[in-house]
């Protein structure tokens, strides 16, 4: 099946009609699912999806009104208990597919691919409830992201597949299924057709991070306004979905989208490291820092991107970024007169740490455009900015903030400045002993004169008999009930 044929009008009864012709669609739906198959035979009395609310209904009823993502309770899908099988340790929405596509490779189970394609083709030729249920059972038991590309390739190359029946199967799975994998399968197949009427469906399902990857790919196949649709979706998600959307938007030539990538698109709730290099390149960070109208928002974004690139890790880092040297030079030039926030301090400190790295790491960098003279000059600029006397006062103000993010930034800067925060962290732990993060910070600052006090407090505040059996099957530290 060619991409052109899939996107064109579908042939119904030998003449061309729009795929969303409501009367014909309902008539075909009745013929396909209203009774026995074309060749008769026994049909199952119940189907795998009977009696449970669809995922689409769930997502629609939990769309956040005042921000991206889902309202309270929306992240937990109707099939969560079946997927988790009693475990309290769960993947975040979209995380399993995100990790698989970025780090593990999806692999290719040839038998699973072959069977999926065969079942879909069989259904398209004889659209019975039994054949539909067979597709559903196969898909729901697997991991769609690991098979979908070769399945689509097989279906695309299948000359005898029924296009209209394939579309109806995909639409049914995407809109009616109560299980996540069939919904993903349906979205991916719908994306082959590129039909305008499916855009709102993708924008709705895509708001849930579990489905954003599939909706992003489907929207990218749209023949019209694909960039605008992807941008719309990108702004409604914050986690793995944002990462997937940004990676596709990096190809856009729209200046507004490129500006957004640089100033906001890199932000996500997983790790900025996944999007930093992509947004620095696509957004033209070097050019933007050289403009006359560099504002506070751009300076903060540039600092966060550079800090993420220097941290490196799961994606491209600072040594993979071809404009690293001129961007750092330009950024530090701006900071010389504009550094004013604790975040600015942290960004410059991160750059200083990069420039101070061991000589063994710098041989390759000198071959990539750096020089010892430039490096030493920029190190001096970092020391000058970080050595200003006003930083300590600004950091101490942040340490008293009730905003956890402001406090976290101030705490990082305090460590860089050598400010002892033991008493502060001790007080915070006494206020909230069930917070595992506060235990971490206190223990990190412990020495032989402090550990006894911390252990005594732990014995008094944590039910040791409760945790004596070892690790639990849930995340976090939960304070036992008295």
Share of β-strand residues = under 5%
- DSSP helical segment count: 28
Anisotropy-based shape: globular
End-to-end separation in angstroms reads: 65 Å
For the secondary structure, the number of strands is: 2
String of helices and strands: HEEHHHHHHHHHHHHHHHHHHHHHHHHHHH
Strand order of the largest sheet: 1-2
Give the topology, please:
Elements: H1 3-7, E1 10-12, E2 15-17, H2 22-33, H3 55-61, H4 80-84, H5 95-104, H6 110-125, H7 129-140, H8 148-156, H9 163-176, H10 180-193, H11 199-205, H12 209-220, H13 226-234, H14 240-249, H15 255-265, H16 276-282, H17 285-289, H18 296-311, H19 324-338, H20 342-355, H21 363-366, H22 372-386, H23 390-399, H24 404-417, H25 422-431, H26 436-444, H27 451-461, H28 464-467
Antiparallel strand pairs: 1-2
Helix pairs in contact: 6-7, 6-8, 6-9, 9-10, 10-12, 11-12, 12-13, 12-14, 13-14, 16-18, 18-19, 18-20, 19-22, 20-22, 20-24, 23-24, 25-26
Structure description:
The chain is an all-alpha fold and 482 residues long. It folds into three domains: 1-249, no CATH class; 252-388; 422-482, no CATH class. Helices cover 60% and strands 1% of the residues. The chain is built from 28 helices and two strands. The chain has helices spanning 3-7, 22-33, 55-61, 80-84, 95-104, 110-125, 129-140, 148-156, 163-176, 180-193, 199-205, 209-220, 226-234, 240-249, 255-265, 276-282, 285-289, 296-311, 324-338, 342-355, 363-366, 372-386, 390-399, 404-417, 422-431, 436-444, 451-461, 464-467; strands at residues 10-12, 15-17. The protein has a two-stranded antiparallel ribbon with strand order 1-2. Helix 19 runs parallel beside helix 22 and helix 25 packs antiparallel against helix 26 (436-444). The longest helix is centred in the N-terminal third of the chain and has 16 residues, at 110-125. The protein is globular.
């Amino acid at each position: 099946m060619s991409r052109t044929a899939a996107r064109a009008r579908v042939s119904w009864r030998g003449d061309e009609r729009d795929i969303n012709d409501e009367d014909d669609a309902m008539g075909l739906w009745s013929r396909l699912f209203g009774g026995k198959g074309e060749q008769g035979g026994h049909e199952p009395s119940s189907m795998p999806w009977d009696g449970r609310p669809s995922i689409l209904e769930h997502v629609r009823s939990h769309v956040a009104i005042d921000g991206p993502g889902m309202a309270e309770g929306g992240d937990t899908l109707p099939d969560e208990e079946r997927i988790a099988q009693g475990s309290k340790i769960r993947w975040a929405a979209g995380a399993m597919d995100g990790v698989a596509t970025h780090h593990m490779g999806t692999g290719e189970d040839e038998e699973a691919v072959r069977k999926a394609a065969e079942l879909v083709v069989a259904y398209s030729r004889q659209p019975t409830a039994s054949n539909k249920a067979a597709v559903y059972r196969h898909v729901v038991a697997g991991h769609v992201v690991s098979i979908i590309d070769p399945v689509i390739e097989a279906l695309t190359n299948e000359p005898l597949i029924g296009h209209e029946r394939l579309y109806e199967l995909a639409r049914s799975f995407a809109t009616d299924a109560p299980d996540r994998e069939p919904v993903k399968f349906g979205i991916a197949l719908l994306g082959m057709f590129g039909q305008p009427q499916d855009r709102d469906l993708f924008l709705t399902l895509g708001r849930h991070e579990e489905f954003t990857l599939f909706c992003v790919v489907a929207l990218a196949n749209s023949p019209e306004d694909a960039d605008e649709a992807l941008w719309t979706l990108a702004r409604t998600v914050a986690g793995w979905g944002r990462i997937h959307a940004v990676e596709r938007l990096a190809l856009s030539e729209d200046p507004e989208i490129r500006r957004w990538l640089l100033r906001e698109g890199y932000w996500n709730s997983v790790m900025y490291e996944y999007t930093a290099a992509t947004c620095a390149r696509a957004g033209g960070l070097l050019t933007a820092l050289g403009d006359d109208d560099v504002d506070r928002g751009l300076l903060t974004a540039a600092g966060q991107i550079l800090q993420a690139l220097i941290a490196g890790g799961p994606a491209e880092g600072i040594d993979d970024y071809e404009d690293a040297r001129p961007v750092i030079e330009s950024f530090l030039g701006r900071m010389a007169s504009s550094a004013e926030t604790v975040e600015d301090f942290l960004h410059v400190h991160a750059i200083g740490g990069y420039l101070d790295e061991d000589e063994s790491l710098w041989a390759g960098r000198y071959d990539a455009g750096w020089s010892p003279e430039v490096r030493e000059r920029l190190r001096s600029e970092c020391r000058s900015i970080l050595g200003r006397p006003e930083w300590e006062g600004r950091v101490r103000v942040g340490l008293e903030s009730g905003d956890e993010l402001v406090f976290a930034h101030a705490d990082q800067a305090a460590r860089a400045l050598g400010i002892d925060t033991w008493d502060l962290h001790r007080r915070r732990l006494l206020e909230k002993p069930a917070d595992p993060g506060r235990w971490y910070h206190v223990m990190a600052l412990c020495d032989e004169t402090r550990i006894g006090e911390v252990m005594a407090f732990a014995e008094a505040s944590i039910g040791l008999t409760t945790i004596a059996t070892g690790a639990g099957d849930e995340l976090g530290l939960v304070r036992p009930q008295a």
